Amino acid sequence: MQIGFIGTGVMGTGIVLNLLKAGQSVVVYNRTKAHAQKVLDAGATWADTPQVVAQQAPLVMTMVGYPSDVEAVYTGENGIFAGIQAGSIVVDMTTSTPALAVKLTALAHDHDVQALDAPVSGGDVGAQNATLTVMVGGDRAAYDRVLPVFQQIGQRVNYFGTAGKGQHTKMANQIMIAGTMTGLTEMLVYAKAADLDLPQVLTTLSSGGADNWSMDNYVPRILKGDYTPGFFAKHFLKDLRIALQEADRMHLDLPATKQAKLLYEAMVDDFGLGNDGTQGLIKTYEQD
Amino acid sequence: MQIGFIGTGVMGTGIVLNLLKAGQSVVVYNRTKAHAQKVLDAGATWADTPQVVAQQAPLVMTMVGYPSDVEAVYTGENGIFAGIQAGSIVVDMTTSTPALAVKLTALAHDHDVQALDAPVSGGDVGAQNATLTVMVGGDRAAYDRVLPVFQQIGQRVNYFGTAGKGQHTKMANQIMIAGTMTGLTEMLVYAKAADLDLPQVLTTLSSGGADNWSMDNYVPRILKGDYTPGFFAKHFLKDLRIALQEADRMHLDLPATKQAKLLYEAMVDDFGLGNDGTQGLIKTYEQD
Where are the active-site residues found (chains A, B) (predicted)? Predict the structure, then answer.
């Protein structure tokens, strides 16, 4: 089966390379063609628009930046829905809004097309090593058909229900991470000010009830002054904004997540550090 | 060596039982004598005041409730300093303020006594199983002498420096946990509202970057409606208040930890849930 893939950024590139490695035939489109060179060199073919991708592939996957990019890629003039064949499947892997997932699914059904929302976690390393976690919502029959493809790019694939449920699960994931990131940042700010031996604090805390993945992975990087992105702060801020919009829509008040969003807003919008990794949050405390 | 132990609550009881099991001779005092019965039955002896404990033991350990209790036990009319012999060692294991640890150390030195602050993490289970993490500050020579005793009650024992550094490390630990607890609570509130399969969300999140000890341990309890305390919310609130007072003193602004304190304040003071475990925070969201 020909697979169409739109969006060959860091994540998309890793995913497409794994699909090619698994023997799939992949046709790609990316807004900036130069950024597709790596997958083209590895055997993918090029299409000039999302529409052309959709004309050539019965399974179209997308991994772009923001919900507005998702909408443009699907519903724009030369978008996927302009080229899609009845009986096809579309899969949006962008972390985007549950509401947009519902809307795109309805539009897909108008074209006799099935749709999935399938955001991932695991970052660039997970994309490269095919160890992503894939959180899927949407048409169950489509999930069953696409599962073997997901398994070529991810380690843990789970179906969470109707359209938008994949995105909701990803939001739950990001809300949890907002807690670990703000916690580890303020822990480190405090421990530095108290003049503690920071590696020894890390060892002690990770042996008990304070242990968490973010601390174990990001504190050593911060202590080395390494703020390169495992995950871009600007993308994390996007995710927190979506999570809080959805929370509002469900009449939920999430004060700790709101506070985390304010902190990442300061980092990205006021300090201009959106291209740092999420661990760069600590810089905003040090510039007070 | 005779060991004096003041404070036979849940934590103190577990610790004293392990000292007795290790062959130590222990004399105890507790404000409510009935709560010492378990350790008396196991072989500890009773003293009527902290002063008498100090008269009988060259090593006096304390594990009481609040900093005000610590101060009373050491400096009160029938307190430790009224009975202590020169050359003795005092060890406060209560989670208390770094400033009080510094003050008690100075007072101890006036009596030719050495002092340690040695708060622990690991909860009642850690106290029972001798798997506590012990974070020690204070007189280095005293630490070297007491280390074999700490090793009878804890699994990981670390020296962090001068008086108060043990308490500062414990505060860093609690600041980190404030992040994981608020994060897991809001994650769960969101996931419930989005009607996700909660055990499946937990499995998915713990396989990736959102993983943390608090989520793995408390979410299953919350899903069973189990709010019994592994760690009392009222004690966690006390710790967050100390952490934020210390942060203020060091001219640090920790907005996420402040927000966590506000949430636990609502739980303990407004909802009267201080005797629940820290995982009971989610009840305050559900009662909105």
Answer: 170
Examine domains A2-161 and A168-287 and report if their fold is the same: no
Q: Which residue of A has its CA nearest to B123?
A: A209
Q: Which residues of B are catalytic?
A: 170
Checking if the pLDDT of A288 tops 90, the result is: no
CA dihedral A138, A118, A238, B222 (to 10 degrees): 80
ipTM for the complex shown: 0.95
Domain at B168-287, CATH from 3.40.50.1980, 3.40.50.1370, 1.10.1040.10, 3.40.50.300: 1.10.1040.10
- Where do the structural domains in chain B lie, given as residue ranges? 2-161, 168-287
Residues of chain A contacting residue B158, judged by C-beta atoms under 8 Å apart: 200, 203-204
Comparing A62-66, A84-88, A227-231, B160-164, which segment has the lowest mean pLDDT? A227-231
Q: Distances in Å between the alpha carbon of B9 and those of A12, A52, B15, B64, B228?
A: 56, 72, 10, 8, 16
User: What pLDDT, on the 0 to 100 scale, is given for residue B287?
Assistant: 63
Inter-chain contact A177–B133, Cβ cutoff 8 Å? no
The tally of CA atoms less than 13 A away on the side-chain side of residue B99 is 11
| Cβ-Cβ contacts under 8 Å, B168 against chain A | 190-191, 194, 196
- The verdict on A134 touching B (C-beta cutoff 8 Å) is no
How far apart are the C-alpha atoms of B41 and B19, rounded to whole Å?
A: 14
Nearest to A211 among B193, B200, B212 (CB): B212
Residues of B in contact with A175 (CB under 8 A): 183, 186-187, 190
| DSSP structural state of residue A268 | I
pLDDT above 80 (res B218)? yes
The answer regarding whether domain B2-161 maps to CATH 1.10.390.10 reads no
Record the pTM: 0.94
Portion 182-221 of A in contact with B at CB < 8 A: 182-191, 193-197, 200-201, 203-205, 207-215, 217
| Averaged pLDDT score across all residues of chain A | 96
Would you call B249 an interface residue with chain A, using a CB distance cutoff of 8 Å? no
* Cβ pair A271, A283 in contact under 8 A: yes
Q: How many helices (H) and strands (E) does chain B have?
A: 13, 9
Q: What is the pLDDT of residues A108-131, one digit of tens each?
A: 999 999 999 999 998 888 999 999
A interface test, pick of B132, B150, B211, B212 with most A CB neighbours within 10 Å = B212
Reply yes or no on whether the pLDDT at A263 is more than 70: yes
